[in-house]
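Narrative of activities, Objective 1.

The group set out to show that a structural description can be obtained from nothing but a protein's sequence at a throughput compatible with the screening campaign. Below is one input-output pair from the validation batch, recorded exactly as produced.
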Amino acid sequence: MRKAGRGRIGVLRVRRAGRGLKRAGMRLRELGFNVKKGNVAALLPIGVFLVLYLGLGILFEYGMGISMGFYSIPIVVIFLVALLVACFQNRSLSFDDKLVVMGRGIGDKTIVTMILIFMAAGVFVGTVGRDSAESVAYLMLSVIPAEYSVAVLFVVSCFVSLSMGTSVGTITLITPIAVAVAAASGFSLPLCVASVMGGAMFGDNLSFISDTTIAACQGQGCQMKDKFRENFKIALPAALVTLVIILVLSLGTDISGTVQNDYNLLELIPYLIVLVGGIVGINVFIVLLLGILSGSIIVVAEGAVAATDLLGNMGTGAAGMFETTMVAVLVSAICALIRENGGFVALLNGIKRLFRSRKGGQLGMGLLVGAMDIATANNTVAIVMANPIAHEMAETYNVSRRKTASILDTFSCVFQGVIPYGAQMLVAISACTELGFQVSAFQIMPFLFYPFFLLISSLVFIFFVPDDRGYVPDHAAARMEATVGAAEGAAGDK
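Output recorded for this entry:
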């Protein structure tokens, strides 16, 4: 009887504990948290997007022979289809409830901040124009001996991309100079073009006004200066090794001529303000505002742009960010529904089975964003898509926010820098073709030293460099932990 009595008391305690945990779950839902089981089917919208985008891209580019076929696909439309698929899932929620879920996702502080920074960066680029980038290039080529021309192309591309925040824009500007260097000096054209592409990816990975930096930092909730410092330790060794290899190859080439052109140092000031201000740690909005103001004064004072046309240029620059902004909005809505339906829980459980250690989790983040980039051929989109999953992984594997943002940005640049159907490669080839020079992606790829060494450097920092910084939860996560702990304690006391 005593045993039976004790057994009955034990059952009652279990039931009370269960009720306590149930109340905790209810309390968590009241606070805005969803306690859900994993649901693989909830990941279907991502699968639909990847199949449509990648499938149509291959069809257009290689099946139909359309130049830059991947970029003929309206990515916003494809995301709308994926969002529609997500809306048809989970019939236990009404459409109005799903709109509320999407609204919470879109209205997140990080998303709003990301959109505002996108717009401000676009206005900055529209204000200052891109002539200053060419000034940097021609300045350095005019003062450095011809045998170092290819190395100069790499360094110039690094600086221009770091200042402008766009690898595609840098390649568009500097590739014609690379063609001129190859034609005048006798250097290999694939080597010159690949050096420009490598430098462009270096700057894109580090720039404070790069959309990849903005997306990674805002998505993970870390400061840009912290992510810059984390990335710089990884990118600098890769860039130095790349520079050494370029110099070794260059010194073994017979040189014939030089490249010279006019340049304007005054046009560099706005870019330098943005670059230095970002490194120092000034608020990104203040930095961009200072860049816009200084750029406006300079271009108007020089007569490069009429005062009446300045606002139009600003609008054009902001308009260039509209697609990126809409992608951020749509992806946020899709991810909110996927999270609500248990898709991220299922994905995390799968990753946990593959990568059990903290270092393995970091590699999993890199491979995740790399897979997204291979599928989308757009490193910004890849980061935006991977952000919510990586955020969950960071908490699971105790990885700092700055480290997570760095991994996302770095690995996306690695993959984006080498895929033959990426915008960077296609724009470089197109620029060469317009100038009457033929070069293929597969001729350029063997000389893409920087992305290769960036991957090696990233793996070294993941597996061999100690990192004691762990994940720091936000206020919501702290509240959740406190609530769960209190509920479990109450259940145990009873």
